[in-house]
Amino acid sequence: MSRAIVLLAAAGVxxxxxxxxxxxxxxxxETAAPPEPQTVRAVGPAPMARQVSRRPEFRWxxxxxxxxxxxxxxxxxxxxxxxxxxTDEADQRRIATATGLADxxxxxxxxxxxxxxCVLTGDIRDMPQLAPETWYRWTVRVVTPGGGGHADFYFxxxxxxxxxxx
Length: 166
Hints:
The chain is α+β, with helices and mostly antiparallel strands.
């Protein structure tokens, strides 16, 4: 009977060791989380995306240091119909400016259905959709009590209409 007790005790010790965890990583090492981005990131349309809907909804992600904005401004400009976008602002045509996004929705805008509290100006107000096969630059500017930031992104629209019957 004492042999049975010794075997049970050994099994209990082995179970305790396994339960404590003997992983592949040495003790004290932790997997570091990826660093938090320091600038505004495009969620959609993705930077340099092609074949984008001619009525896109614009979405972006603010970094932690800009998460409590007092002012968010969105700008959309035509950047040409060539193989690559015109990156000089002098060669671009601004078609939309939206302000008041800090309260209305600091991380997205649908230009064809802007949120309440947003002030939208520019030619976009008379456009049912964006031009086909055209490059656009969209800019997000953010101001916080401690600073601010901005980012520019480009995309190209597809040829197909996004509005039925047009």
